[in-house]
Structures are given as structure tokens and as C-alpha cells.
Design goal:
The chain is an alpha+beta fold and about 90 residues long. About 20% of the residues lie in helices and about 15% in strands. The strands form 2 sheets. A two-stranded antiparallel sheet has the order 1-4. It has a two-stranded antiparallel ribbon with strand order 2-3.
Length: about 90
């Protein structure tokens, strides 16, 4: 299995270490990363969808995107509480 990465570090860490170099923005194949407030990268889903190609993470010279060994579409969740049924009508 390939080496995948997860999203960026928590916001304070990301803001403290992001160089605002635009490498991730330029690498985005979907063209949804834009320069946002303060010059930091920002995702604009009005422009399209993220394909989870991780080109942005690989372009980051500060390694702000950490390793992940599960593809985004393979993530699994489990309900731990039963939700009450509600009558419809």
C-alpha cells in the first residue's frame, strides 16, 4: 500500500510554521487551494472537489502534513450509541 498523508497539523501549529510559499497552492491538481487570509492556503470547495491526490502535502517543504497509512476513502466509522427512532409523518 502506498504512503498517504492526512490533513495539516492543528491550526496554531500550521500557522506558526507555514511559510506561505504557495507550493501547496501551485501543486493542487483540482485548483481548489487559494491564498486566504494572511496569505495562508485556504480550501475553496466552490471551485471543485478534492481528489485526495496529496500533491499539496508532498509539495509542503515544512512537512506540515503528517503520515497516514489509510486512504481517505477507506476510513471506517462505528456508531457507539443507538439513536432514538422518531416517527415520521
Amino acid at each position: 500500500m502506498g504512503f498517504f498523508r492526512r490533513g495539516p497539523e492543528k491550526q496554531p501549529i500550521f500557522l506558526a510554521h507555514c511559510l506561505r510559499c504557495d507550493a501547496c497552492i501551485q501543486a493542487c491538481e483540482a485548483d481548489i487551494l487559494q491564498r486566504g487570509a494572511g496569505g495562508y492556503p485556504s480550501v475553496d470547495f466552490k471551485r471543485g472537489e478534492c481528489s485526495f491526490c496529496y500533491a499539496c502535502a508532498q509539495a509542503c517543504t515544512e512537512s506540515l502534513f503528517l503520515p497516514r497509512h489509510t486512504r481517505a476513502w477507506d476510513l471506517v466509522f462505528t456508531l457507539t450509541e443507538k439513536l432514538p427512532r422518531q416517527a415520521i409523518g
